């Protein structure tokens, strides 16, 4: 009799394990609580991923970035990130964020004259004054937005030399020192050389090396999986290796930079489960170009088993 009960329990366990595995694929996770008389596991919706809308890419239904704060809120977002809001005053941007009642988790540094192709000054010898001014200006915006992360962009360099390397490190050290006093984290992001030719920081190993060298909690890596896949792939190993140094993650499908459920090279269901498994619990920035409407394109969040 005991042997028969054990055999029946084993069958139930096998069925339960199989069901758990299948429903995990659908975005469900299980608690340890169960009713022993019925062997029913308690299911809960997966809510561990936190998403932030990138207003420089999403909600282009309005050409005015300050209006996109409210559009993001209406779509269900609780947090946003932006590039530098060129053409808008500190007060205008702060009012837009406040009115929408969303959290600003990231802002890009003032990049310079984008019509001239400028993408920051950090690695540009002779532009140290411009770098410091751009950092100071961005800090003003960040403080008004209660934003605790600034993306420090390196700038474009056609043929990098050791002088570019030393300038980059020196400017980063200056930024880290300044931001530490403001309790703001500096982020650096490797950007692929295919979609953004000549960007100085286009190498992931180089980015990790400088973060380790400066060795400050106020300097972290921003890992954009769109750029990672373009630059070298090997996403699983990179996430595991870089996780202790990450300050932010961004996503978009490759190659067209649309929603993560559109056709492309990256299996984002797997990526999200990997990030959860490895313990990443900070925001994920949605830096993608909606294939159709911004709000309509958000169906993937529910389909993946998440909520905003």
Which key features would you list for this structure?
308 residues, alpha/beta, eight-stranded parallel beta barrel, two-stranded antiparallel sheet, 10 helices, 17% strand, disordered N terminus
Write the layout of secondary structure elements.
Elements: H1 2-25, E1 28-35, E2 40-45, E3 50-54, H2 65-74, E4 79-82, H3 90-100, E5 103-108, H4 128-144, E6 149-151, H5 162-182, E7 185-188, H6 204-214, E8 219-224, H7 225-231, H8 235-242, E9 246-251, H9 268-278, E10 283-286, H10 299-303
Parallel strand pairs: 3-4, 3-10, 4-5, 5-6, 6-7, 7-8, 8-9, 9-10
Antiparallel strand pairs: 1-2
Helix pairs in contact: 2-3, 4-5, 8-9
Please, could you describe this protein's structure?
There is one protein chain. With about 300 residues, the protein is an alpha/beta fold. It contains ten helices and ten strands. The chain has helices spanning about 1-25, 65-75, 90-100, 130-145, 160-180, 205-215, 225-230, 235-240, 270-280, 300-305, and strands spanning about 30-35, 40-45, 50-55, 80, 105-110, 150, 185-190, 220-225, 245-250, 285. The strands form two sheets. Strands 3-4-5-6-7-8-9-10 form an eight-stranded parallel barrel, surrounded by five helices. The chain has a two-stranded antiparallel ribbon with strand order 1-2. Strand 7, helix 6 and strand 8 (about 220-225) form a beta-alpha-beta unit. Helix 2 (about 65-75) packs parallel to helix 3, helix 4 runs parallel beside helix 5 and helix 8 (about 235-240) packs parallel to helix 9. It is globular. Mean pLDDT is about 90; it is low at about 1-15 and about 15-45.
